[in-house]
Amino acid sequence: DEESPERLLKVVHDKRTMEKLLQVMELINADLHKIVRYVLTQIWRAKEIFDQEGIEGPGHAIPGHKLARLISLFMCGDLSQVAVLVPIIRRVTSGGGLDVVKVKELLRQHAEAYDEWAPEIDRIIRWAAIMLDPMVPPQMVVEHEVPPLSEVRRHAARFRDIPSARELYDRIQDKPQLPLEVSFSNLLSRLSPYLSCSQVEYFLEVRRQRDWQPSDLRRIRYVYAVKKKVLDISESYGGLSFLPQSFLVSVFLGEATRASMRASRHLKKSKRSFNRQWSNPTQRNGKDSTLSTLRRRRMQAPKTNPLGDIAESSEEYIATPAGVASRANLTDERLNVDKSHGLVLDLPDEVEGLSNIGQYELGDSLLGPADVAVLLQAGLTSAMKESTVVQLNQRMLLDLIATQPKGFAIAVLAEIGNNGGQGSPRGLTSALMALLDLQQSSFTPVNRLDMHALLESWLPGFKIPRRSDYMAGGRWARQSYYEAIFSVAKGIVEDAECYMALKSHVQQARFNSEDDPIPQPREYEDLSMNDLGLDISDACNTLEPKNSKLMTATEFAKEKIKDADRLGREILASLIKDEEATKKSGKYELTIKAYEEAFQACSRVLEVDKLSFQTTWFKEFYNRNYDALMISSMHSNVINDVDKVRHWFSALRRGSSAKTTSQTGHPLLQLDDTIDVSAAEFTIPANSASEEKNVFEGIGEFFSGIGKPNSKRSLAELQGVDVFTDPEQYSDQLLIDAIIDAIVYRVQDRERLKNDPLVRLLIPNAPGKYDFVIVSAMGVITEGERGMELNDAFQRLKELRGVELVRSDTGTARSMEYNAMKIIEAIESVADMNKPYGLLGYSQGCANALMAESLLLSGSPKQRAYLKGPRSRLVCRQLMFSAANGSTHGPAVDMKAQRLIVMCEEFFKYQQGYFSRAFASFVLQQLNNFMDSAPFQKAMGGAQSFLPDGCRAFWREAQHLPQIPTCTMRGVLENHTLPESLEMISHGLTKQSGSALHDSQVHVYDAVGYPVYCVNRNGRLLKNCAVGDSAIQRTHHWSPLSDEVEFVQTNRDLMQGSFECAKDRHVFPWIDVNARFGFIKYVSEEGKEKKSGNDGAGNDA
């Protein structure tokens, strides 16, 4: 790749080429030549040092002592400062932050230009300190009863006459052989700009052409065409690569603006109740251009007197942006503003009755707020801002916004912050700064807009800051312009809550309200009836055959589990003492057969009641099997010598056998049974520090109640022996003990697993192929469908069980909405395969996968069919190290970004006196261009999912299926499992959060399959689904990765096998446990499944 970083570095390192460039530069500007030569000289010197030290990648420079050598060589040409640098680096990597005093002292001694550039160097060091120091954000709090915005009473009262998405789908499907009612056809065409592209597409597909009113059909088709174009533009704008885009945009933007004006005139004539006021009441023959229409409207604008009222002739006139801006400082009374034109203030219920709250006023534009936001953002980031075409496009968009209700402008600004999302103040701040500095050089001074006044006219109660007031010499020079704009952006996002509620109302079909009861297993429903004093036998007479079948199946399954556990406990002691003899006994086979019968009995219960897995007894048995299969998978990897698992376990055993201390230097904190790590709030007992027991020390004492194995001598002989190097020499039971002690974090979990016969028996599933497909969604940094995460494990799974994999083409640091749409595309491809599937999420991919499910469930009937089809349907979820509840890293980095931006602003104010106004304006313009660029805005959307506001918005609106079991994997880091490349991140998270119970990215109490900080009906539903909560493991967040992180592996990582872990354990146990209980079918059952699906396709809800 000619534009790859490696290629560019090769060019920079080519001294001959660079010397030619420097000669040309010296002829142009001697000062610039001097600066560039100095920079290139340092780059060449660094390259020589790297070659001398054998640095071929980041992994070679990550160790602290190696980094100290490199810095010492670069700074003073020898190794004399290594001893000084090592403590500084260790302090940073341990989460202590940068030692500013020592760094300044080093630079003063070895940097020749330190005294001359002292203020600038000091500022750079403070910037570095902000970036490297841990910053403690406000702790997240649990919010109870957080309903969707569309169900908030003050918002719902404003949508009384606007049908919900569910009502739209019901009415469009009602009486399919008859034409649509005229009123509904008109309403849907009016509402179409506020709908999503997929919704409009579905409405056009599901109804025939003759079912619509002709004018409504034309409008909806036009809206659909515009939305498709805008959707393409939303992913491809800004930069030199899209220079012709502005011309293409101008073609359909002008027509869309004209069509919106025609629609507005039609609505004014046909429906006076909308109370629109328009200019140009006289009919004109012929077709005028959009610009001529705008010019004519400006000519007909009423003359204003700053000290008087507007002429009465303005009653039928809506001002253009220029007119609005020129009168923005006048009072509403002088402007004769129609109070019904725009949003009505949301008064609390206790202040004013809900019946008095005004109706939300929809705009009549053919472009919805989201469409206008994309086009406006594309113009702000265009590489041709000075061109007349771009400026005319922006002016047409502003004119269009000005002709709509004021709520439309607020909606557009909120959508600019995060297209398709819930609004991002950080992204909106950058866009506002660019919008306020809008290029208008193509217009004469008299026709240029005062953007500050224009925005203030759209945003009542807001005072828009002016940059000049915050520059050196301004009235607010001591304050930050960025922070002032940021506060405005936050206010806009808050004010746009009503619009967000409208989006949720018309775009997301909700089949249950927040007050509806959560679906429960029928076993619990019968118990609740009994608690109410009802006679179950009388209450269930009408359902006696069905309920008696469930009761019979349930009791049978419980008895089978009880019998199997009894047999398992009877042979457990002998199995540990003499495994070979026990396996030859008939009781061993009888026990395995009993457990297999218990699995089948549980499957039959699920056939009767698909929610029965949520009952306490079933959930406990499911979780035991998940843990047992987890241990079995790792045992199989050790025996079969898969990848480098033996080396990894040997390193784990050495680390777990030692008296490990935590990352903060204190004895390792252990979770006990009194701590619910799935809860949002818990405290670590004050006296919870305990020393780790040796892996094989006193193993017999763990088996209380079943007899102690008489193997003390043989265990003593194994002290210090690496059983994983040659596992064939040892029994399966010894290997199981070694695996459990090496990988399981909690002492209580280790004891529980060692006492469980299911774990000891290593019962495999029946051989055969599974009728199943995995849809994967990987983390925040991914190559999407070209990714290689867990590639070897997926290949082994396909060979063994025939399970296919479809990788979602998610993007790096992209928003949840974008990635969710990519996951939906992958699900659509699975539908073509006509197979059931499961969602596999990793890190941020968990939130993306859950959002994809929510979007499908709240979407059109066609989209819901992807979740609940007769064959291709969602059957299970797997969430690995889930970041769906956010991460403390998110708000901490957000705080750092705010501080750094403000510090940069202060630096430019300081330098303002040394540079010309033109240069200062140029620098500010470049900063605006960067912060409003497409990559920056997309990155802001990706970061939003880690912030509390983004997580709250997601969980507040989410909907999920109740019959889908969820499995999770969680980990806690210790010194011997911590990769060297994650040291600073991990220790920083410990300092920022006050807890070391994390995997370097997310805490164990956050990495669950349901919302922790946003409690509502859907959250409780998901918590009921979380049945596969495996024992917390000693591992890190990058556990699923291998080749992807090879470039940052250090020698220490290789020695402790940090990235050589058992990859199969991330996938195999999840697949096998769901196949064991019948959620996943065998291929041999395909014919049976097809028949049952056809007979009861409507019962999958």
Mean pLDDT: 80
Helical content class: 40-55%
Class from secondary-structure proportions: mainly alpha
- Molecular shape: flat
Count of DSSP strands: 12
Strand order of the largest sheet: 4-3-5-6-7-10
Radius of gyration: 33 Å
Number of helices: 49
Distance between the ends: 49 Å
Low-confidence stretches: 269-291, 297-353, 529-544, 659-716, 1087-1101
What does the oligomeric state look like here?
A: single chain
- Classify the beta-strand content into a percent band: under 5%
Largest sheet: 6 strands, parallel
Notable characteristics:
mainly alpha, 1101 residues, 6-stranded parallel beta sheet, 4% strand, two-stranded parallel sheet, 49 helices
Overview of the molecule:
It is a single chain. The protein is mainly alpha-helical and 1101 residues long. The strands form 4 sheets. Strands 4-3-5-6-7-10 form a 6-stranded parallel sheet, sandwiched between helices. Helix 37 (791-801) links the parallel strand 3 (773-777) and strand 4. The model is unreliable at 269-291, 297-353, 529-544, 659-716 and 1087-1101 (pLDDT under 50).
What can be said about this structure in brief?
This protein is mainly alpha-helical and 1101 residues long. Helices cover 54% and strands 4% of the residues.
